[in-house]
Specification:
Elements: E1 9-14, E2 17-22, H1 34-39, H2 42-65, H3 71-78, H4 82-92, H5 97-103, H6 107-117, H7 123-142, H8 146-155, H9 159-181, E3 183-196, E4 202-212, E5 215-216, E6 223-229, E7 242-244, E8 272-276, E9 279-284, E10 295-307, E11 314-321, E12 326-336, E13 344-350, E14 377-381, H10 396-406, E15 414-422, E16 429-435
Parallel strand pairs: 3-12
Antiparallel strand pairs: 1-2, 3-4, 3-5, 4-10, 6-9, 7-10, 8-9, 11-16, 12-15, 13-16, 14-15
Length: 447
């Protein structure tokens, strides 16, 4: 069944066409060129519009401010708003017509420019600019979603458009989710260390979480600080995955053992322990009089987390679903030099759901329908005297060295990589993968 209501209209088939008869008081929706664009090439029309606008804007700008116009010169010459003058100059300096279409002012802004510039430019140039602005307006009206849809089309091939629109969208998402959830964090960092397991058959993990600038916007909002999975009996099962405190305790009896109090806000408020099946969560309760700790550091050990010998070319390491809106998230992964010598990490983003580990990144770049296309930076960390420092995270190197000493890995050498993102999307799952180039797609040796 369609989810669109008829809105007071009646229809009947006639000669294969759908005839809409508006009833009294109903709004008549007239067709636009959207149908034509869906059958034609929208991208070609975007490029053609950008090409025409480039010629028209350049001609008028040069008449106003000379062959090398500057925004301040344009603004002073005709009394144009400085931000509008800047967008005009930046748009014609782009290297492609699609990038111009992303930066160019709206049709209304172009008409303002044409009106103020008509004393300086010849009538033909002004008319050309007005006609280009009108064609731009027609294009916007013809595309469902208007300029946002056109920018999304441009972003397929323009990194400038992609990064700008994505940043605006992520920033808006951060503000909205902070209000809806009632809390936020300035910086969230995680550092995952992969080390040889005690049994020689598995790989263990040590993971440090740090939250800086944690804020609860409404006192009535319960705030989850740390969640972990596992049964108390996991540790006694051979090769079973288990989560332990930094000193090797199960943590089931006292989950606050996962917190590093010396590197957290003092004093820590009283926390509620909420158990839901195999999941245990430390929560700052809704009615708690305590403020959220502005700095919170936690650490846990993952026993028997991964196989020493990977069974596939892509090996899933960790998945993170961000429940706290953050201005910045930084996730490091460090691999002991004795493990996975040829492996390199990759990152993917997916909508939360079952079997995400079965969908590794595809080498041809095609995405699964559950994957989310987000720009991010992933860099290998150089060796040096301060390999663990993270900008904006207080005492990070000291925390890491403290944890590694307590777990017996103070002298272990690691290879490290860092993922960073500004305004990460809440409730989108990020997955760390290890790509083993020596293995084929089926897990056998690469032929």
């Amino acid at each position: 069944m369609s989810d669109e209501s008829t809105g007071g209209q009646s229809s009947e088939p006639r000669g294969g066409a759908r005839v809409i008869r508006p009833t009294r008081g109903a709004r008549v929706i007239r067709p636009t060129a959207a149908g034509e664009l869906s059958r034609g090439d929208l991208r070609l029309r975007i490029e053609a519009t950008g090409r025409d606008l480039r010629r028209a804007i350049t001609s008028v700008l040069e008449a106003v401010a000379g062959p090398r116009p500057r925004p301040t010169r344009v603004a002073r010459a005709i009394g144009l708003d400085k931000s509008l003058a800047s967008r005009l100059v930046r748009s014609v300096r782009t290297t492609s017509d699609t990038d111009l279409m992303h930066l160019v002012p709206s049709p209304g802004g172009l008409h303002i420019f044409a009106e103020l510039a008509r004393r300086h430019a010849d009538p033909a140039s002004i008319e050309h600019l007005r006609a280009g602005a009108d064609r731009f307006a027609e294009l916007l009206d013809a595309v469902p979603g208007g300029r946002a849809s056109i920018d999304a089309q441009i972003a397929e091939s323009s990194r400038v458009a992609l990064e700008k629109r994505e940043h605006i969208a992520k920033q808006a998402s951060f503000k909205a989710m902070s209000f809806l959830l009632g809390h936020f964090c300035d910086v969230l960092s995680t550092s995952l260390f992969l080390v040889p397991g005690a049994n020689g058959k598995r790989v263990d993990g040590i993971e440090i979480h740090r939250r800086m600038g944690l804020r609860r916007m409404r006192p009535s909002t319960p705030l989850a600080l740390l969640s972990f999975w596992g049964e108390a009996s996991d540790a006694v099962k051979e090769n079973a995955i288990s989560f332990e405190t930094v000193d090797g305790a199960s943590g089931a009896s006292d989950p606050t053992g996962f917190l590093l109090r010396d590197y957290s806000t003092q004093p820590l408020p009283d926390l509620d322990v909420v158990r839901d099946g195999d999941m245990t969560t430390l929560v700052l309760g809704a009615n708690s009089a305590g403020q959220a700790p502005t700095q919170l550091t936690s650490v846990f050990r993952i026993r028997n987390g991964w196989a020493v010998q990977p069974e596939a070319r892509f090996q899933s390491l960790r998945g993170y679903v961000l429940h706290t809106p953050c201005r910045e998230v930084i996730r490091d992964v460090y691999i002991a030099e004795s493990l996975f010598s040829d492996a390199t990490p990759q990152v993917s983003f997916v909508l939360p759901g079952p079997r995400v580990a079965m969908r590794p990144p595809r080498p041809d770049g095609q995405r699964h329908f559950t994957e989310v296309d987000l720009t991010s930076s992933l860099e290998q960390l150089p060796p040096g005297p301060h390999p663990y420092d993270i900008p904006g995270v207080l005492n990070q190197s000291a925390v890491v060295r403290h944890v590694l000493e307590r777990t017996g890995h103070g002298m272990t050498r690691f290879r490290g990589w860092r993922f960073a993102m500004t305004y990460p999307i809440t409730l989108i799952e990020m997955i760390w993968w290890l790509m083993h180039p020596s293995l084929g797609p089926d897990g056998g040796p690469q032929g």
